[in-house]
Amino acid sequence: MAKKREIPLTLNLCDIGSQLLRFGKIALLQQKYEPSDYLVGSYFCDNYFIKETKNLIYEPVREGNKVKCVLPIPSQSNLDDFRNTVCELKKEYKDHISAFVVNDIGTLDTISKDTDNIILGRLFHKPIRDPRYSETITDKKYTPDIEVLRLIDKYKVSGIELESIYDDISCPELSCDIHIHQNYCYMSCTRSCYYASASQPTEHKFRPNNPCDLSCERNIHRVKLQTGQEVFMLGKGLCFKTSPNPFAGEDHLKSIIYTPVDELLGGNV
Amino acid sequence: MNILTPYSKEVDIKKLKESGADELYFGFYDDEWTDRFGEFSYINRMSDFKSRANAVPFKHTADLISQIKETGLKAYITMNAAEYSKEQSIVLDEYLDHLSDNSPDGIIVSSLASAIQVMSHGMKAVASTMCGIFNESILSRYIDAGVTRIILPRELILSEIESMCSSHPEIEFEAFLMRNGCVFADSHCLGVHGRNYGALCQAFKNGPFKVDTLEKSFEERQDYDWNMKVFDMMPRSNACAVCAIYRLIKCGVFAGKIVGRNDVPESVMRDIKLVKENIDIAKSSSSEEEYLEKMIFPSNRYSICIKGLGCYYPEVRFP
After folding, report:
1. Sign for the pseudo-dihedral over CA of A46, A153, B95, A130
2. B residues 52-81 near A, CB within 8 Å?
3. Mind listing the pLDDT tens digit for each residue in B57-71?
4. Chain B residues with CB inside 8 Å of A145's CB?
5. Tens digits of per-residue pLDDT, B161-175?
6. Is the ipTM of this complex over 0.85?
7. Which of A77, B86, B142, B271 has a beta carbon 3.0–4.6 Å from B147's, enabling a disulfide?
């Protein structure tokens, strides 16, 4: 009997990596999951990306591991600092960054000029998904969006990221790899940081581009929805837990992405 | 600055014009689309509100466009769902074929792929908040493709708007003025809006919560707890930008948007009148200070103006 293909696991350190680093959990996660590589950076927050990525990338790279660098959508105000940070990362870690994961067409266009291995990040993946309505997250077949197809064709990206809401990801028209976020699905995000607002006076709260003191490292806010599921505010991203399902169409599947939120919230590593 | 307002069914278009509206936008619904693609596959951002927020069935869009244009207003149509499959885009082509015969002033879209599709039918594409144009780098992709009208996301601050407008004076920029300020980023908020359980942001505000925190000191916990309280108090459904009208006009914003396809029409018309009066004041003011002295506040200022919590651009009054 043919051996089932083992799909590599990518450990996602984006947006929560600082907390994991602080508690010394990254080494333990490495031992537990033996990831083939890591995601560092941020999906949701340019401030976090600018402040923390150089700290976070050091840990996996130190052990000789490859990383994929995740680039959030920068605000207009942070555009220069964002670009400078990307340049510095490219220069310092060019032998260790195996791919850039981008989340907007501006960054995609810029980075494609001198980078071969680009993955369309999870923010390009926009089907409605709401755990309060099970039809939006179960019994689904993946069908790519026309914008995603246009970008794959134009920029020859190597892969796309999807959330774990499908039973079938077989897609003959797709000419690139698929990477699936296995255990936490993002459903929304904010550009006015909930956590950064805590240290601001009332009249300055919840503004875009509020100064960042990495309060997201010290807090995770979770809310129970009307139907009983929990959503978690991980930095600026709002996520819910998904159960890994076996699904059809694994031929394109390049990696499973694991986000260690459970371990961060006090579960045993 | 033009005033763009939502059109919802059974509203007198002439009254909207008399209130001060220059441009109207509306959505349509199509039961055939829903039958074919399912309840959670949308034509536009507000499809799950069905006929409550979508003025007409598709077969009546031509009549509505004519009525709007005969009144001397511009007509924009929303086709800005978060994503479309290839199969759905074929149906969109059929819609666009029909709509192009009736010359709407623009189609509001959610991605560059959709914009290109609209422009291939000879119509103007309007890049909506769903496009997430948060910076000049993204803006340039749309401009290079030929898009000439951009709806600026709610999450831009005034200095960012001023920067983008001054760099691209040839572009018609729309900015939010009144109502329905979103807590989460519209472009990437993928929860179900309407139906049984309401918007995700409301569920987040009202649901039982737990905070896993490392904040140890009493003061730090107080800060966090007050933060939650303020978040709950924010009157986002009545978000307002009238204090920013002078600056928005000065930097060249082409149209101010009053949101609310699902809102009570009389309430929307009150906001149109308020915005119109304040635009006139801004045009006759020689400075921002003069405008801020003379402007007319919304009638519900005592619930929305406190500490800038209901402001689209709080930096005007609370720099």
Report:
1. negative
2. none
3. 999 999 999 999 999
4. 83-85, 111, 113
5. 999 999 999 999 999
6. yes
7. B142
